[in-house]
Fold each of these.
Amino acid sequence: RVLAGPREDLAGRHVVVSAGGTREAIDPVRFIGNRSSGLQGYALARTAVARGAEVTLVAANVTLPDPAGAKVVRVESARQLREAVLTAAEHADAVVMAAAVADFRPVRQSDTKIKKSSAEPDPIHLVKNPDILAELGEVRRARREAYAARDAAGGAAGDVAAAGGREAGDGPGAATQVPGDGPHPRVIVGFAAETDDVLANGRAKLERKGCDLLVVNQVGENLAFGTPDNAAVVLTAEGGSVEISRGPKEDLADVVWDLVAQRLA
Ligand code: CTP
Ligand code: CA
């Protein structure tokens, strides 16, 4: 990459980044969690601020200092993260889901600390959490369809033209006329950590989730979790791929924003 001083190619854009890992409470003192440090998400937030974006950072259980210039929303569980991301995404141009979201949560959480007794412990029953990335993609698809249908019907042509091509936000008024109010960002980016069949799994995941870009990390060899370095392949919805060689998470973040900026241009 050519380092050409501070770029402002995300000026005027609102981007949402999720970072860290969710925690699913078992009782007031215990949770099911994961190893995400939040470093990659925070690097994404910092670099987006540096490139001129308005940044909302939804941080799940991250112990890093708030990045200067970003709006930070702190959450704990997957359901809280969903709420915060969907709300922020409503007026966003791009959403990058770098957070590690717990796939499952305990069906019930105890209001009081579970005590040890002479009996064997009860099993913890799990239930699926909502898939936030898939939901972002699904709501966008439904909204695009609704706008296209309204376009084709021609009836509310004036309103459609007024909203013309504006996908992010969809100004006041427009949103109320389209069924399924919801987030409609133009670029949706997912992350995936895979241990085997990295590319095939990544490709299937991108399609399943309906996102535009999927950053696929190979986990292991001291990469990814809690380290300053990362390496990845970015898969695109069109079937392309961009390799990012091992380097600082800031560099990976900049490549992601390069690809996002291209798609927003
Ligand atoms: N993700 C999400 N909501 C979930 C789970 C994952 O939004 N409940 C997002 C993550 O933030 C990430 C992407 O989906 O950007 C891929 O996460 P990953 O765990 O790799 O995908 P899963 O569909 O959960 O598949 P797997 O069985 O491999 O865990
Ligand atoms: Ca998962």
Note: The two ends are 19 Å apart (CA to CA).
Amino acid sequence: HSKQQGRNTFSFFTEQMSQDLSRRLLLEEHLRHALDLGEFEVYYQPQFDIKTNELIGAEALLRWNNSELGSVPPDEFIPLAESNGEIVEIGRFVLKTAITQAKTWFQKLNKPFKIAVNLSPRQFKDCNLIDDIKQYIGQAEIPASLLELEITEGVLLSGDESVRNALKSLHQLGLVISMDDFGTGYSSLNYLRQYPFDVLKIDQSFIMDLSNNREASELVNSIITMSHSLGLKVIAEGIETLSQLKILEHYRCDVGQGFLLGKPMPRKDFENWIGLPHLE
Ligand code: C2E
Ligand code: MG
Ligand code: MG
Ligand code: MG
């Protein structure tokens, strides 16, 4: 009898494990063909100057829609693509799409309109990264300063000299370098000194607590003051309420992004939303 029980306990344990594994294998199998099948789409989430209320740009956020799996969130598929190296090819698609889009909107809006693209650590190991970016920007004939690159501390953790050199080159080309999810890692302050950052994005977990947690709001206030004294621009992400926005305005946060101001949207919806006629 105890043998029976033991086996049940054991199989209950492997059940979860094998479910996780088969989900992973299924995702990996479909991910392999996703680019060729055109299953990826770049969405755009608006960013606003908090002082003037002006729309100044957008963050490019990747979406994957598979006929069998449905919509798979980036937090699930990006780590997989990162671990098997496919993120290099996928990342190239995002960069090319976003830069081409930046060209169109720059022309149609008749003013600088920035597009921010997220870069994964693995993309820095690709020796073509800088040349690819140069090529896309050259083809689009837009100022390099219209492209913002968002990286998290994960990129810097290796302490790799090649990452520092790549960021330096990209910065020298005129691209804007942004630290994403600031406050969630651990030696962020040191990174700010060692790498050529222009922008700091405060993680949404801080913004979420802004109006009901004194510590969170003091932290945000201090991060903004410190960033400004280091010459960095500050973006707050994950703004969902007016009261959060008002506090950020009071603290002189430069740029706001969040569901309150606009959700990530497909290109066409974004164009409708900002009042542009359809551009094919
Ligand atoms: P992230 O770069 O920090 O992007 C911000 C995330 O917050 C996005 O999630 C966005 O949809 C979400 N967000 C924006 N405003 C709000 C808000 O007001 N409330 C809440 N609750 N969430 C908000 P998303 O699109 O699911 O992306 C998740 C993460 O996946 C991104 O975090 C980024 O790290 C990664 N990711 C997305 N696209 C790409 C990509 O093209 N390349 C790479 N390497 N990573 C990407
Ligand atoms: Mg980001
Ligand atoms: Mg972020
Ligand atoms: Mg994030």
Note: The two ends are 69 Å apart (CA to CA).
Amino acid sequence: GSSSSIINANILQCLSKHSQTPIPIYTPNNSNYSSVFRSTINNLRFLSSTTLKPLLIITPLQESHVQAAVVCARKHGIQIKVRSGGHDYEGLSFISDVPFIIVDLFNLRSVSVNVTDRTAWVQSGATVSELYYRIGEKSKTLGFPAGVCTTVGVGGQFSGGGYGSMLRKYGLADDNVIDARIVDVHGRILNKETMGKDLFWAIRGGGGGSFGVVLSWKIKLVSVPPIVTLFTISKTLEQGATALVHRWTEVAPKLPHELWIRIIFTLANSTRKGEKTILASFNSMYLGDAEKLLTVMKERFPELGLERKDCTETSWLRSTLYFGNFPVQGSLNMLLNRTQPKNTFKSKSEYVTKPIPEIGLEGIWKRLLKEEKPLMIFTPYGGRMDEISESEIAFPHRNGTLFMIMYIVSWNEKGVETSKKHISWIRELYRYLAPYVSKCPRAAYVNYRDIDLGQSKNGTATYLQGKAWGRRYFKGNYERLVHVKSKFDPENFFRHEQSIPSIAHPW
Ligand code: FDA
């Protein structure tokens, strides 16, 4: 409408005044607007024609462009959404109920690796696999413990924790972040020293979109052995999956730190004609060679029956292809491919603090078997995660957590009714899981954003409203996050439906 064109004209004018170099901007009149908008929308559930589209998409080429975007949006009272990789489960980086603009960081994706220092600076618009590729280009013995899905953005992932196959050895991506550059609400660029320890604490795990725009992260690289070993062993219910999974809940969190065995649950055809069964795939990486792994498994988890023929020895860099569902021996260039596998889905997460009895597991199977395309993943914690205190950084799920559960339902058919059906299925599973998962709070992973935990219209939550999701994502760190937010962004400029509230602002 005409009011949006006036807003656009004002912002465009402001942007050109605040930048020495041209800033690439897409208005709805631009023929590429739609493709840029859609490019990194990972959850197709949020690509409907009825959602409000951004007034503008700003795609900064330099840090100063981000500064200009913040200054001008604030001056004209317009909400911004920051997008790095676009994988937000609830689409909060690109949808809104009120007029808004997107600051999309996909052009800011340089990675500079310093092998001597064993550090790197990575810009937020890079994907995690671009980071892995650049590290691998420079060194065969250095790596980084971030996510397993190749196309996830560094900006969103590092804002909320970031875990992958080296979690038990080295903790989260955020446990290895040693500096950052952030644009604050005044449009200033701050680093670790100038932002101070409170803000630096908050941006490591406190979730994206609440404190400013993180431009880049300085990370400490970690040692990886020249050979790592991968395996996936799959068992159906008929092959005794239930007892094995139960055994895994006792064993996996206590294995040597070098060994990470997660379980991926999907449906498969049963031996009984026309029936489905649960397939539990034990999917693993060991930081060491196959011979050593076989010794460890024989001693600690013989029930799984791992044999030499199940093992693939490769480099750490190539293991990232494996977890990204590419052939281990395939081209490493796949790591630079930003094309995302997309889906229409709804997901939830849990933290588990005591082993789930077999009867509890059987109730899960029963529910999974009612859906067409359910997926559930058990990710073991323990190891390094137990050694870091809950308040070291804003991410709080540490000692006492045996494993994390992520469950997801995806579907192909369109329509509101279909979505409703699948979403109520996952909510029912959530209710079922209550006795088996963490309580007070029933915790969740902020990077697996779940709007069912609570939300505020246009990010205007009070302290108490924000506690609904804040306590689950951040446990006892929620209070400090509110404190940091109130100090650095009292007027609540950086906000979204599940952001950290400011108590300095009288809503
Ligand atoms: P996106 O751009 O959507 O941003 C997510 C949130 O952060 C939004 O609120 C956004 O505004 C904010 N934000 C983005 N960039 C910012 C910046 N530069 N500064 C401040 N705020 C910013 N997680 C994990 O730990 N390990 C894993 O293996 C996986 N695997 C995985 C697979 C798939 C298919 C999906 C869809 C997701 C995952 N995740 C994951 C979860 C993932 O870490 C989470 O969705 C991240 O927030 C995504 O980051 P993006 O930059 O892609 O998202």
Note: The first helix runs from residue 2 to 18.
